[in-house]
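Figure 6 in text form: structure in, sequence out.
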């Protein structure tokens, strides 16, 4: 048992309360006694308990158990999820069945056997702890606060289940998926349901960092470590100490720095650039990539041992085209957000506009959808978003239409076409376009792809 449980004991016999108090206190439980149904209700209204252990018979009616059954119903009205174990010296099968029907979790006959009673209480404590944890996770996953994770489609249910299962652990998680599919939102949800939610979550976009500053960004540096090092600088690992470090586009970490990253993951130690002083850091690492890291390992661009450390658990995000049931809800969410931001009164999408959203291929995934809805909010002149406001172009646009586009539209179109051709692989798309990975990432951010 990780922590002692709080148990409310309800019985009108002082010697029974004392015997239970001595037994349970000796086992590490926190105990609060109550000698009447009214006393039990008062205790429940003023404090939190994990389990109630209560008699069914009291001074008003010592044989039928009705007073105890009434108390059981009152407890259920206060907290339907609270575990209740009932006990009576006048036990019958019918009374036990009635108590269980009204919500009791288990039944003990007086005089009790210590081993059986302790086993029942420990089991109910574990179940109560798991239930409370599950309710907390569900509240966080479905909450409106923080980053919104809209996931009503069947394709996203395994993602939600993995977040709930591994979020509370300190296991390193690798999130994979196409650009714009929502990897950072999932990372923030993992942090929110972890044991570190009150500590910082620090983000590093490895795809947007030049190799020359990468080491300094991650580990910091001391004054004089290199020409521009005018003062000491704290790196992202130190900033995230006690919390979570999110390494986005992890495939972009230079090969010569991967060994240093591996060392931090293995033993929690690092040095700032230019310093020989070792620092200890306690950081949970969540990483993300759209690259196929297995292929990167085979090509010699990524260390296999580092991959093993990063993907203790892998969460794969499906592209938006595979979760079309979420498009309408996502679009409505983005519409509300941007309408508030730009102070516009909009009532939603007309039928044709919504159909256009559902039919679009969304090569840029959720990020592209967000970008399209934001632009539509700015362009809308009516109370509803119309198809023209969306400015969606067919994925099969011909070269004859290119001369009608702006330079930015043409570039965005070619990037989407390259991504589609290479199944969302940014490295291959960048090569096809004659761009570096970091240059393509900057354009993806610029165009909301």
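Output sequence:
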């Amino acid at each position: 048992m990780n922590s002692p449980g709080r148990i409310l004991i309800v019985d009108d016999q002082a010697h029974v309360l004392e015997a239970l108090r001595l037994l349970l206190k000796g086992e590490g439980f926190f105990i609060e006694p109550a000698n009447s149904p009214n006393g039990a209700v008062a205790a429940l209204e003023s404090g939190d308990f994990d389990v109630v252990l209560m008699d069914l018979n009291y001074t008003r009616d010592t044989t039928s158990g009705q007073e105890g059954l009434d108390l059981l119903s009152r407890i259920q009205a206060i907290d339907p999820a609270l575990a209740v174990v009932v006990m009576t010296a006048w036990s019958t099968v019918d009374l036990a069945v009635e108590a269980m029907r009204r919500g009791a979790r288990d039944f003990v006959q007086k005089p009790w056997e210590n081993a059986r009673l302790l086993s029942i209480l420990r089991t109910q404590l574990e179940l109560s702890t798991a239930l409370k944890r599950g309710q907390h996770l569900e509240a966080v996953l479905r909450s409106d606060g923080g980053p919104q994770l809209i996931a009503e489609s069947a394709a996203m249910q395994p993602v939600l289940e993995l977040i709930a299962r591994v979020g509370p652990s300190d296991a390193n998680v690798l999130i994979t998926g196409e650009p714009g599919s929502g990897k950072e939102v999932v990372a923030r949800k993992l942090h929110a349901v972890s044991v570190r939610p009150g500590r910082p979550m620090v983000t590093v976009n490895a795809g947007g960092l030049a190799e020359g500053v990468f080491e300094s960004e991650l580990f910091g540096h001391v004054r004089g470590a290199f020409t521009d090092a005018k003062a000491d600088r704290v790196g992202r690992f130190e900033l995230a100490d006690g919390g979570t470090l999110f390494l986005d586009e992890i495939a972009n970490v230079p090969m010569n720095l991967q060994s240093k990253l591996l060392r931090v993951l293995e033993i929690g130690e690092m040095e700032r650039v230019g310093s020989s002083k070792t620092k200890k850091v306690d950081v949970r690492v969540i990483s993300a990539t759209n690259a196929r890291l297995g292929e990167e390992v085979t090509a010699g661009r990524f260390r296999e041992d580092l991959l093993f450390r990063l993907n203790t658990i892998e969460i794969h995000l499906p592209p938006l085209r595979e979760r079309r049931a979420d498009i309408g809800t996502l679009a409505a969410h983005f519409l509300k957000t941007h309408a508030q931001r730009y102070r516009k009164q909009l009532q939603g999408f007309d039928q044709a506009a919504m159909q256009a959203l559902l039919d679009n291929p969304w090569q840029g995934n959720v990020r592209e959808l967000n970008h399209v809805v934001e632009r539509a909010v700015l362009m809308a002149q009516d109370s509803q978003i119309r198809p023209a406001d969306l400015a969606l172009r067919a994925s099969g646009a011909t070269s004859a239409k290119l001369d009608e586009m702006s330079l930015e539209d043409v570039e965005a179109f070619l990037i989407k076409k390259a991504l589609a051709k290479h199944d969302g692989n940014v490295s291959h798309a960048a090569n096809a376009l004659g761009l570096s990975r970091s240059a393509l990432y900057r354009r993806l951010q610029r165009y909301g792809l």
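Caption detail: The radius of gyration is 29 Å.
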